[in-house]
Amino acid sequence: MRIVTCIVHDHNLWFVAMAALMCVTGSLVSVTLFRRTMAETGLARVYWCFMSAMTAGAATWATHFIAMLGYQTDAPVDLDSVLTVVSALIATAGIGFGLVFASLNNRRLAIVAGGATMGLAVAAMHYVGMFAYRVEGIVHWDWRYIAASLVITVAGGMLAVRRLRTGGERLMIVQAGALLSLTIVGLHFADMAAFSVTPLPGISHVDDSEIFTGMAAAIGMVALLIVGTGMSTYVIERKTSSESEDRIAHIAMHDSLTDLANRHQFTDLLEAECDKLKRYGRPFSLLMVDLDRFKPINDTLGHPIGDAVLQRVANRLCVAVRSGDVVARLGGDEFAILGFGIRDSGTAASQAARIVEILSRPMIVNGHVIELSGSVGFAVAPEHGSDPENLIQHADIALYSAKRDGKRTFRMFEASLMEDIRRRRSLEAALRQACMRDEFTIAYQPVFSSASGEISGAEALVRWTCAERGPVSPVEFIPVAEELGLVSRIGADVLRRACKDAASWPGGLDLAVNVSPVQLLDPRLPQTVARALEDSGLQPERLELEITETALLNNDEAALRTLTQIQELGVRISLDDFGTGYSSLSYLHRFPISRIKIDKSFVQRLPDDLGSASIVRAIAQLGESLSMKITAEGIETDGQLTFIREQGCDHVQGFLTGHPIPAEAFADLVARAARVAAS
């Protein structure tokens, strides 16, 4: 009751209201900074502890002095400036030490030591400030209220620290701020209730209300400036920190090159969609996109151009999908798309077709015309699966099917594709075993002179008989060997053994060996050829390496270097399957080609198909004008052979003239031909 009377009758209520506003504002800002201090470590904690102590000390000191200036007495009053400054320093330093204790790892010790230190610091500030309040009269103290004020400030300090160390950001700040405000106000007015003054007789009272009002306003403004500085620092730092965290989060969830969602974000989104599917039955589609012929762009034009192409592709994919769908780059030239709300495979197929069409459009990057395409495989949830692993697997299987079927197309997952993949995996395992066990053999298809009909050489053809599958066609296992990186090893072994076999043939017979596009890009190929010739003793001019037009498309500069080095060994180069690929006269001009082989697809339509006849006739004339030998392959009828001879082709091969046979059988064939010629 005495405390209420003290506030209402012994104080100017405007001063009390000003002090209360300062107390509440300062307390809320102070606990915000306290919380930040305890969350930091190292030098950052020291900085925030200093800022917190300055803010809390200024707010507490201003609350005390504004309320004290509002105390109404009939005796003259003066202020000791030194003690006034000392009281402010006590509040700041004491609260700072209290914060250090409040940050200790031991929670109980932190609450007791930190809360008590801050509470006693506020009490010391108050009593030193009261000693600075010089009144011309007899001062009386009621020790009961003094004891109560000390209990209030210590208990309030410990409760505030206890709340500070509890979770709940916003609620914690309000509750801890309220406790700190009650502690400061309770201490001040409990102590002021203990304080009373009896004026001395004969000393007149001077009205200091205007001076005290000005002082209170000045103190409030300075304190608010300090509190505002502390809060501004916190807000700016928090905003900067939030922006940095957002930037780091963005980097962690997005591809740095294309700014698309990365694999991590894609995985999270896919898992979330699968969860929504199970809860609410919300369907969606998953499309996997892989670029066709992107590696040659990187190899020939460089990675900066390749990166620019990927950025263009990312932009095109974003245009191709619907608003709200997510495009992600999983790595390299592989992308994924989540189509939300797609209920049927027809809609997903339309979206896949649009993606294929847009990616097929040429683009100009740094002055280079880039032509590539994309293959798409897709699965629809829940039709093709309802968990992330199955959907990714099924979309990948569909993508593999699209690339196997010629690329630049799209495929939807079907159960039958699983069996294709199983066979493919089985073939891959068997092929690796075949390489380790040297299960490959060589068959030789005779090549005959068109004019004389005599054997002029043979083409070495690799054969594989799998223990489980039986004979496997090169058309089936060579592409797999290329993808597995085994073709160079297989090709080198075939070349070595074929050169060794050919070295035992009569000197007039030549050997032709096929070289795959992957081998042609291997810079070690010239050394492999030289070693095979050296080990076998075969003369270089008897060896001819057959390449295809598509092999020259991948990296023509690298292919030119390799073929030039091989030609310098004395080995001849022939262009196989001429007319079926990207036929260009520039190849015949730029590359060291000495023979053209007419593809069997034209030969087998002879002599009735006028178009094929015209093409064969044109190739034969082209070879003659360029002084190149011409070989027609795939001859199966007498009519075809007659037509070829009439066009002046130099050599022929096919089932009509001779099937591929083992090395021993070819040697016998050569021996019989020699005996016939001798007789």
CATH-wise, what's the superfamily of the largest domain? EAL domain
Q: Count helical runs.
A: 25
Mean pLDDT: 79
Report strand %: 15-25%
Task: Please give the CATH architecture of the largest domain.
Answer: Alpha-Beta Barrel
Q: Which stretches are low in confidence, meaning pLDDT under 50 for 5 or more residues running?
A: none
Largest sheet: 8 strands, mixed, barrel
Secondary structure tally: strands:
21
Alpha carbon gap, first and last residue: 144 Å
Helicity range: 55-70%
Structural class: alpha/beta
CATH class of the largest domain: Alpha Beta
The domain count comes to 3
Q: Largest sheet, order of strands side by side?
A: 12-13-15-16-17-18-19-20
CATH names the topology of the largest domain as TIM Barrel
User: What does the radius of gyration come to?
Assistant: 46 Å
Morphology call: rod-shaped
GO molecular function, one term: catalytic activity
Keywords: Membrane, Transmembrane, Transmembrane helix
Pfam families: EAL, GGDEF, MHYT
Transmembrane segments: 12-34, 46-69, 81-102, 109-131, 143-161, 173-195, 215-236
Write structural notes for this entry.
This protein has 679 residues and is α/β, with parallel strands linked by helices. The chain has three domains: 241 residues, no CATH class; 151 residues, Alpha-Beta Plaits; 243 residues, EAL domain (TIM Barrel, Alpha-Beta Barrel), CATH 3.20.20. 61% of the residues lie in helices and 17% in strands. The chain has 25 helices and 21 strands. It has an eight-stranded mixed beta barrel, surrounded by five helices. A five-stranded mixed sheet has the order 6-7-5-10-11, sandwiched between helices. A two-stranded antiparallel sheet has the order 1-2. Helix 14 packs across helix 15, helix 16 packs parallel to helix 18 and helix 18 runs parallel beside helix 20. The longest helix has 45 residues. It is rod-shaped. The model has no long low-confidence stretch (mean pLDDT 79).
